[in-house]
From TrEMBL, chains A, B, C, D:
Autoproteolytically processed. The inactive tetrameric zymogen termed p46 autoprocesses to a smaller form termed p41, which is active only during spore germination. It catalyses: Endopeptidase action with P4 Glu or Asp, P1 preferably Glu > Asp, P1' hydrophobic and P2' Ala. The lineage of its organism: Bacteria, Bacillati, Bacillota, Clostridia, Eubacteriales. It comes from Mordavella massiliensis. InterPro entries: Pept_HybD-like_dom_sf, Peptidase_A25. The gene is gpr. GO terms for molecular function: metalloendopeptidase activity. Its EC number is 3.4.24.78. It comes from the Bacteria. It is an enzyme of class 3 (hydrolase). Signal peptide: none annotated. Keywords: Hydrolase, Protease, Zymogen. This is Germination protease. Residues 1-10 form a propeptide. Pfam families: Peptidase_A25. HAMAP family: Germination_prot.
Amino acid sequence: MIEKYSIRTDLALEQKERFEADHVEIPGVIVEEEEDEEKEMKITTVRIETENGAKAMKKPVGTYITMEAPGLAVPDEDYHREIAETLAGYLKQFLTPRKKDSSVLVAGLGNRKVTPDALGPYVVDHLNISRHIVREYGKYAMGEEKVQMVSAIVPGVMGQTGMETVEIIKGIVKETRPDILVVIDALAARSSRRLNRTIQISDAGIHPGSGVGNHRCGITEATVGVPVIAIGVPTVVEAATIVNDAMENLIRAMESSETLKGAGLVLQGYHPAEKYELVKELTSPHLHGMFVTPKDIDETVKRISYTISEALNQLFSPGTCS
Amino acid sequence: MIEKYSIRTDLALEQKERFEADHVEIPGVIVEEEEDEEKEMKITTVRIETENGAKAMKKPVGTYITMEAPGLAVPDEDYHREIAETLAGYLKQFLTPRKKDSSVLVAGLGNRKVTPDALGPYVVDHLNISRHIVREYGKYAMGEEKVQMVSAIVPGVMGQTGMETVEIIKGIVKETRPDILVVIDALAARSSRRLNRTIQISDAGIHPGSGVGNHRCGITEATVGVPVIAIGVPTVVEAATIVNDAMENLIRAMESSETLKGAGLVLQGYHPAEKYELVKELTSPHLHGMFVTPKDIDETVKRISYTISEALNQLFSPGTCS
Amino acid sequence: MIEKYSIRTDLALEQKERFEADHVEIPGVIVEEEEDEEKEMKITTVRIETENGAKAMKKPVGTYITMEAPGLAVPDEDYHREIAETLAGYLKQFLTPRKKDSSVLVAGLGNRKVTPDALGPYVVDHLNISRHIVREYGKYAMGEEKVQMVSAIVPGVMGQTGMETVEIIKGIVKETRPDILVVIDALAARSSRRLNRTIQISDAGIHPGSGVGNHRCGITEATVGVPVIAIGVPTVVEAATIVNDAMENLIRAMESSETLKGAGLVLQGYHPAEKYELVKELTSPHLHGMFVTPKDIDETVKRISYTISEALNQLFSPGTCS
Amino acid sequence: MIEKYSIRTDLALEQKERFEADHVEIPGVIVEEEEDEEKEMKITTVRIETENGAKAMKKPVGTYITMEAPGLAVPDEDYHREIAETLAGYLKQFLTPRKKDSSVLVAGLGNRKVTPDALGPYVVDHLNISRHIVREYGKYAMGEEKVQMVSAIVPGVMGQTGMETVEIIKGIVKETRPDILVVIDALAARSSRRLNRTIQISDAGIHPGSGVGNHRCGITEATVGVPVIAIGVPTVVEAATIVNDAMENLIRAMESSETLKGAGLVLQGYHPAEKYELVKELTSPHLHGMFVTPKDIDETVKRISYTISEALNQLFSPGTCS
């Protein structure tokens, strides 16, 4: 693989796949796969159980569930309802066993004004917010016995606020004392075929710009003081990534070609660092900061955000209709 | 006056005018007026100095400066620049004498999705945010020696967040420790002629739904722990208000009419509570929750928010261009 | 009634009510009322059959169906589906008997950037557009035998385009030759209780600023060359109207009061023109161009526009899901 | 070059560069370059004078002026004013010599809801529209003697309207009879370094999806009946393009490498069709319909659209302020 570690992905699933390609087992990492043919979904659970596993995976210890549902990118209302139900089911696993009268704070991360980054804010737009009602009138005001107190915030991004997202959330958590924090964020994938058709749920929190490994900024139980469930959907692929993928494919293609086999083997023999330099030279410096995204991203992000908020509403305010 | 106290206004200036109409002096309240004919602005300063004055005015102790500038509602770029400069000047009075290296948090209150309420969020959209840059690279990164650290938040409204705005801001202030808080909010005026052409600056903080007097929710130095400067622009008049105004005018008109004088005097003699009941009966219950706003409100709010953010940028990041 | 003819309403229903208040029959105008208690809807059909009737009603000859459905302003998805079905049913009456393979052009009038005026553009946003698909692949591409060709345009308002809306639509109709034109527009009502809970359907076309009676601008079969069905929802009341209503109520209230009866009778005796002058004096000149609208107008307009597009989709592309 | 003709570009400049790389002169095509060092702009004029030239360039006969201004992508107000002036100057060349009292229709093509495609609609948002005022009050109402009648339309895209853009524009042109049509559109570039920093002006009209060469849809003097000036800015690069570019760079790099030279020469020797197949195999089928765009595209498109409308306002309504 050319410079496998330099390619950014926020999906534990894709991190794992890179090892598989090399037929390597990672100690401390357990992977389970499940296919739901009827719903056309594939569920992969990656459990990073040790610090060594975390190091190898470049992701913190925790459980990462990935739902791959090609229909997520398509405007089929019934199918989206099914996904919302499935998603609610998996989220529930992370919630039990919590006390009955719990309260949840949902944070919609990202920049509302940059479409592929607006997933989090859009999810919050459609949530059933109840904390202020329950506090004012008691939970019977919601017409349900089991209602939880839901509050939500769209903190914005650092360029808009001048503050680390974790500073804002930490302050609000301390002041309003929710039992759990759910963060929603748009992710970067490595493979364009995962764009807008994959949802990752994790109890490991969120690490903005996690490739950089800046743990100071992480939004985790350690930094904010309450358990954190992260829900993410890859909406972009970094432009450099697709060039890199094509390169890998070229090298593979060369190996099986009579006339090019020699060169293919030479390239294959390169040290990752050498390959990385090669790709960097081949790609335009103008690609930096560019991302790849589908033409219909505006509609797609809206649709998926609606599906996620439906799942959260089913989970936290089952009696009310959204 | 029919039920003067039941009419909502967020402008200290309008509160004061009600007393003037009755030729009443309010102890503990000092009023200064100033006219800038060249700039076509009228500046009124209301100083509420005692708790008795505060009680009479139904506004907390503090200084309220009101700039009335008819041109604010008109798309004249040069004039808006002048207003921005004047506004920056008055804001500076509230800031001195603070220490040199201060940091400011700007909170844009209100609901971005309800146009007349979106003033605060729009102002934040155009601010020069610098806190993260100064923290990362030092203030020389801004190319200026005197730059302040500016951070900003759009907290949303309770229906969107489930939290009191003051909870969110208090949490963020505790976590990020700004020296001063500036809050921007859209206000309700009593008179439609003040809509979108008046700016009120105050050091008394903001009292959401202040007519109700819910001090628990106030955003003041007492509740958030740092000095608060509030900037407000009236963008709506409650629908009931304009009916009330017409009633008052009618009663006055009757008194000066031969045939109606008797009835006018009878009505005039009513106790405020009686008049209040009368107006309530006359107006449709459907008016509740309705407001009066001009047709071009979308454009107007954008323009004024831009003027206010220009004033803040001049004040807090004078070297950078917006 | 004070100056009944000066009050603007775009609803034939409200025009008719003014006559009823005076117990006047209008020759050439037939009115039918129907109540659907189960669906909590009231349907009023006003048929203006003669030019004399049109003159009296200040509306062109034609049929005007008004659906009053209080639930329209409320976020209840099931109820909105019911209204959509009922609306589709009434629209169908205007369509029969047309030829099988007809094509329809839908025009969403109004200004997308002024919320209460954005109804038309929003409806078009959610339509199933099929003309280009049917033309490219035949109607079987839509998976339905009876599919109609639906095209749509959001022409904008004169301040944005410099053109009369009818010029734009006429040009497009001539070029693309639809069999029928459906126009959607936000209306002004006279009564605030009708805001956002009333739908008017008419085959008389639309007369922008119809109170002014500028027939040059009308969008009718006569001006565009194909039959026109207009769908309108009142989203604003002019500010002056609510003052006027309160005045009328006051005069009525005075008549039943011991002490004020005299004055009430005096006012009642005024000629409409005198009353009109009185109201004009009582209301602020700043009210001109102001309108009354509910706080939640952004959400409400979105919801109703969605209901109307669902009705149109059911009617014109029954097989596809929206 | 790998499959040079399969790569989409809407810039005549980039079409020409492909020939230059092969050191080929194109008969019937004249190219002039000009550098304005002070303004940091490069101006290239491509004149396609013969049908043979048009065939070779895959662009219709006409003049194409390309302004490359790196500062266009940067938020510097003064620089944008300079670009607006320069742009107005070049546009003027296409206008002379027309009659004094001319009228212009501006069409903002593209989809307002897909950010990189919203350039045209955004430009129209900021135009000074005057046709309706001049028609109502005469040109003196604009306070200027030389004012032109400006009208504008945002026609939407075929998926939204069901109509070809040219059908809509042709209908409006026939109905309102402007002397000239200006169309604004977002383009696809071949090179990511040209994104958002290049403006192309042409008198050859616009050919939506021009790579496909579907002349039926073209918006040209031939199809709409009046002269057409097209203004375009590349805001996207097709995802496949950047992979292709990297491939070309790789092949070049291989040739100058000891160990890879052989393979490089082999690849270089491939027929374009063979190379095209190779690239197609190397890139993911999921890249189809994907485009590359910078992270800050929302802000950038707004800024550039503002610059273009300023240029048009200077040109067509010089006395009024925008």
